[in-house]
Each structure stands twice: as C-alpha cells, then as structure tokens.
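User: Show me an example of a complex going from sequences to structure tokens.

Assistant: Sure. Here are the input components:
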Amino acid sequence: EPEVTQTPSHQVTQMGQEVILRCVPISNHLYFYWYRQILGQKVEFLVSFYNNEISEKSEIFDDQFSVERPDGSNFTLKIRSTKLEDSAMYFCASSDDSGNQPQHFGDGTRLSIL
Amino acid sequence: GNSVTQMEGPVTLSEEAFLTINCTYTATGYPSLFWYVQYPGEGLQLLLKATKADDKGSNKGFEATYRKETTSFHLEKGSVQVSDSAVYFCALSDPDTGRRALTFGSGTRLQVQP
C-alpha cells in the first residue's frame, strides 16, 4: 500500500536556526497538509496545499512558516527562525481530490529545539 | 468553529472487555467523521470513517456510527486485545464548506491489560 514518507525522523536544531522538514506524499494525491502535535497535546492543523498554492492555513501558520512543492514529489515545511515552542512532532498528510476521502499520514518528524 | 470532544483517558481495560470511546462534535456544515489510531512511536493511521448521517464505519472489529441527531461518533469494539493499546483520535473535516483540514479531538489513550 502506498505511504506518505517523512524525513528526517528526528531533527535537533538550535533556537533561531532555520529548519526544513521533508515529505513525499502518495503519488496520485493532490492535496497536501502539515499538522503538528506538541508533546501530550492534540494534533493541530497548520496548512494545506493544492494546485501549487496554500488553500487553508491556521493561526499557528504565521510568517515564520512556509511550504513549498519544489518538484513533482516532495512537499516541504520551512520554519525560518525556530523558537523553543516549535518543538513538536510534525506530521505530513495527503489526500486525493475527493472531498470525503481520508488523509493519509506519515510517521512524523520529531523536531527538538535547543 | 468546528470542534471535537472526546472522553478523557486513559481508559484501562482487561483483554476481551467491551470498549466505548465517546466522541461528539460541532460543525457548521455536514462533516465527514474519522477515527485515527496512533500506536506508540508511530504516526496516525486511519481506523475508520463515515461521511453521512447513519453511516457506520468499521475496521478490525472497531465500529462507529455517525449520529447526526446527537452529533456523536462513538468508537466501539466488542472484545479488545492487548495489541489495541494505543491513542485514539476522533476527527472531522467539513469539505462542503471548503474546509478539508482535519479538526482533532484531544485523543484517548487505551491501555489493555492481559
């Protein structure tokens, strides 16, 4: 069964540094998403991406965040100047173009800001 | 806005016991409803879904029925196993209003003892 893959599995970064999290969505999917889960808390939506542009974003997704689909397979989340509170598990997901189809998640990248 | 409320955990059961995890929601449109499961150290896996009122989603012995009149989507399983120990998340999306982002509940940890 096709999977969403995320790299790296764990990223440790100094506060103030830039970090890029990478995702390879399922190949025939058209919608891509980023979510985060701070330790012990609920999963929160960050942003969705369709047709090479952001289709939805939450209030968490401020100017320090950006997303990009640099080629036909990768989908990236960039955090420009990391803060301690950015420490979380970041999940990528993808879905096809049917509104009721479920999102398929990767195993996540654990981001630790020191 | 949309929201999902789940029963507090952890839920601790003996093997072969009956499981119910309550989930209620508020939404502006007619949402699609999902249960995701997160095993220790892993990402989110879709367990089951329902896209309209009175639909019953089922998978791996788990079931949930979309109850519009009570705005609920309770998860049930007749006989739990130790391998069912995980965190269970109820979620919704509202594609009819253009909102595909998933709104998650806070998660319910299930511990099944042999």
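The lines above are the inputs; the final block is the predicted structure for all two components together. The CA atoms of residues 24 and 74 of chain A lie 5 Å apart.
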